[in-house]
Amino acid sequence: MSDAAAHSLRRRCRGVSAGIFAADAGKLGEAAVAVASWGGTLLHFDVMDGVFVPAITGGPLFVKALATGMARDVHLMVDRPSRHVSAFANAGADIITVHAETDDAADALKLVRSASDRLQRPILAGLALMPGTSVDDAAPLLAFRPDLILVLSLDPRSGTAPDIAGACAKLDALAERTASWAPWLAFDGGVTAATIGAVSRSRPDIVVSGSAIFAAPDPAQAFRHLTAAWEGAGAAGRTVDA
What we know:
Blueprint lengths: L2 H10 L2 E5 L8 H10 L4 E7 L11 H6 L5 E7 L7 H6 L4 E5 L5 H15 L4 E6 L9 H4 L5 E5 L11 H14 L6 E5 L7 H5 L5 E4 L1 H4 L4 H14 L10
Parallel strand pairs: 1-2, 1-8, 2-3, 3-4, 4-5, 5-6, 6-7, 7-8
């Protein structure tokens, strides 16, 4: 993988990542094309196995099918992510994020890097933190220096309401803790027109939103509003490294 290719991918993987599984299940292809037409650069896949979290969603075939030129951002909310990394990498994922709360998170992160080398293209290795996982709890995995860290404001296993302020504080703490290698920082959970301002003030590189886009009366307008708020809060002003 060349430095130029990695740099190009990092430049693409910024902004609002549209949670595609929040769209009409019978029209996912149309929804993905629509996001691209709105200027979207990221398509987010919340992959759930019914074990790590209660819900069940789609697998690698969806990632492969929804190739629209946007970066494909895969969030593995699964019990044993190491078993699935290779399939999603082969399907075209550009980001593969695994959960710190899983037993094999370290192995999965290593497998993302191995897949990137094997396929000769950059794939960002991401680490996700549930609300109950502190920065200190994640320290052993942060030592791996993931390319991206995703902070969740809600825990889908418990059904509790989003804690936007708490997640923003964690994002700020991570920015300080990881300054030596400056991974992409991402925010997921409860991102709406009402909360995007507060979220964006923590300057995440990526903001994930699904229902707030696809359940809106005008999804295009909703997406553009979230993007404008992210840009207006200065999030777009972060330095892009290779």
